Prior knowledge:
Chain A: InterPro entries: Aromatic_CoA_ox/epox (IPR052703), Ferritin-like (IPR012347), Ferritin-like_SF (IPR009078), PaaA (IPR011881), PaaA_PaaC (IPR007814). Chain A: One of its GO terms (cellular component) is cytosol. Chain A: GO terms for molecular function: phenylacetyl-CoA 1,2-epoxidase activity. Chain A: One of its GO terms (biological process) is phenylacetate catabolic process. The complex is a heterodimer of chains A (about 300) and B (about 290). Chain A has about 300 residues and is an all-alpha fold. Chain A has helices at about 1-15, 25-45, 45-50, 60-85, 90-100, 115-135, 145-170, 175-195, 205-210, 220-235, 260-270, 275-290, 290-310, and strands spanning about 245-250, 255. Chain A has one domain (about 1-260): Up-down Bundle (Ferritin). In chain A, strand 1 and strand 2 form a beta hairpin. The mean pLDDT of chain A is about 95. Chain B is mostly helical. Chain B has helices at about 5-10, 40-60, 70-100, 105-110, 120-125, 130-150, 155-185, 190-200, 215-220, 230-245, 270-280, 280-285. In chain B, helix 3 (about 70-100) crosses helix 4 and helix 6 (about 130-150) runs antiparallel to helix 7 (about 155-185). The model of chain B is unreliable at about 1-25 (pLDDT under 50). Classes of the chains: A mainly alpha (about 300), B mainly alpha (about 290).
Amino acid sequence: xxxxxxxxxxxxxxxxxxxxxxxxxxxxxxxxxxxxxxxxxxxxxxxxxxxxxxxxxxxxxxxxxxxxxxxxxxxxxxxxxxxxxxxxxxxxxxxxxxxxxxxxxxxxxxxxxxxxxxxxxxxxxxxxxxxxxxxxxxxxxxxxxxxxxxxxxxxxxxxxxxxxxxxxxxxxxxxxxxxxxxxxxxxxxxxxxxxxxxxxxxxxxxxxxxxxxxxxxxxxxxxxxxxxxxxxxxxxxxxxxxxxxxxxxxxxxxxxxxxxxxxxxxxxxxxxxxxxxxxxxxxxxxxxxxxxxxxxxxxxxxxxxxxxxxxx
Amino acid sequence: xxxxxxxxxxxxxxxxxxxxxxxxxxxxxxxxxxxxxxxxxxxxxxxxxxxxxxxxxxxxxxxxxxxxxxxxxxxxxxxxxxxxxxxxxxxxxxxxxxxxxxxxxxxxxxxxxxxxxxxxxxxxxxxxxxxxxxxxxxxxxxxxxxxxxxxxxxxxxxxxxxxxxxxxxxxxxxxxxxxxxxxxxxxxxxxxxxxxxxxxxxxxxxxxxxxxxxxxxxxxxxxxxxxxxxxxxxxxxxxxxxxxxxxxxxxxxxxxxxxxxxxxxxxxxxxxxxxxxxxxxxxxxxxxxxxx
Lengths: 312, 292
């Protein structure tokens, strides 16, 4: 056991990848399963807020872009559940844990999408924040997760550009459309900042995850990077980020920003956000409505496997 | 081993199911001149028929997003909807170019239901029943594939190009629907009952697929349109092979009646289309003059 642990530690120290058949500490395995499952669940629940506008997309081009994006999210969910399965987890069981409220998904999806500008703002801010969080995961110590993240990050960057492009188009449209974009930014800015998780002083899992090289940067570092990246984009777009304390700090070489309302973050995390119940109920309903279909597929596969045995 | 045995064992390794389907600009592909001896208004009307079939059916399928029974089905159904909306964009753009409207979006979002030219099968709601969605897709895609195969040789280069791209896509839609027809038909007692009921429900809408409108008659004579009457044999061949394997029975129900001979191709629809358009067109109509 000590040899195995030593080998694991050496692999991590040398910045090499742990692969599914390598020995790994139970805590490492559990942490990864939890994190990858949460990420997969986020992709799946994340289909709902944007899916809310597929049927009402205002042009055929926008409809196609949005459909393709939401489809990508389903695809990301598939890769990620597969990555979790390399650790011995099972997709159906992970889904049950999600539906039972025992595993989480990103809190951002507990906010409603109330206008078409939200489709663009989710692309720009929410996918932008996700990219900041996820790009370092491409160097995560666990091989299958890191490789899945490379593909996912490429597609997320594409989504972010598409979201920003929609907002650019809307800002060149009518006054009503410009107001729609600003209103949407006002609602999504703070929840986007919350996507990086609690402040470092209050983030119990960060240290161990960084030691295992699952995580490469702290929550606050990534949040700062996101703010610094986003402010010039907001200026180019012509929208105001809803934070009177937001200003360049030449001494730090970063933007200072106002205090996040952590009570709202905790409330949403605890299930009391605007859409927590709705999102889970939607997922449960789809899952239950599909039960007879999955049962049929299983019964069919079993019948035909038996027929092949008899024939052989 | 028949084609559908092979299908039922197929895995999802098909190249065309790559994520992030390209969203190309359609404007340059639809400006070819009208073939000699063909009335532009007829051709525009025909593009509306085929385009509306794709748009309306694609929209119905997109209702499944985030509601599908399994993640693989989320991906497959979204992809199917995307393919059909892609076909609709080319066809509506062509119709607009020929004088039917300003552009694809005006045609999709500003027309009232009586100006839609799709067959009723495309617009039927499936009420969130997967079996119903599969029955509709099986019949729609078997029929559309037969049409597109005939359009490969159309004298209109745009229709021929749409067909060339569409044949591959719609063949996959049909195979997907056929695989699920097999699994549901020959799955559990419940799935068998539901799949049979779904087929029975959509069956009265099949006869309309084979009717030839006046516009089509003229364009068939000009070597531009496909003859829908000829597609019956193709659709029957699919059903004759598939249904017995799926332990399902070919429904025996009379075709849905017309209103003095008028149906979808003449703009006389089911009550369901108006509700679909009320949702689909709401945002576009709320913001006249907006840019998206």
